[in-house]
Amino acid sequence: MGYVARYQRTIGSEADVITLTADTFNDKVKEKDTAWFVQFCVPWCKHCKNLGSLWEDLGKAVEGEDEIEIAQVDCATNKPVCTKVDIHSYPTFKVFYDGEEVAKYKGPRDVESLKTFVLEEAEKAAAKAQLDSDKDILGNTNGSRMAIIPFYNRSRKTMKGTSPVNHQVKRRLITCQIVTLHLGYNAGGNDYDAKRLLDIDIVDVKTA
Length: 208
Hints:
9 strands; 7 helices; signal; globular; alpha/beta; 2 domains
């Protein structure tokens, strides 16, 4: 399928790649808890044409990944959008999360590299958003100490951290008096960033 033809796909379609326009871009990339990996191109650019079906292949590769969308913007017909997000060359690939640009891709142009990049950036952005949310919650606890307790299934062999991207983790925020809580596992894990930044105690509870 040609490059221009691919650009005819719209948000209402079932395509793996969503075409964003000046009318839809802002609202879509502001969708809560969703990472948008957006390709900015123009139909006449030879480098964009040389991508072939790369972006569609990426869309298929991440199909089923929660809260990740693959999109494209035609800067020839949506110049205000591209100007607003500082696009000066084609193709340009950027990740947006909760309406903010969080990363620009400059690596190899192959599906596996692109997929690894967007998964990692989505997880980092989601973790940061959750930390910010936790800080807001902690600001309204009237001085009480906060404990974040992850509940997860012990049958899982590995866990990819405790970020909100991993839906195996269900966190509970409990307001309590200052007490000593014990870390139930790996003292070198991701928990310590939250522990240090938020001044909280963290415990683990393993379920059946």
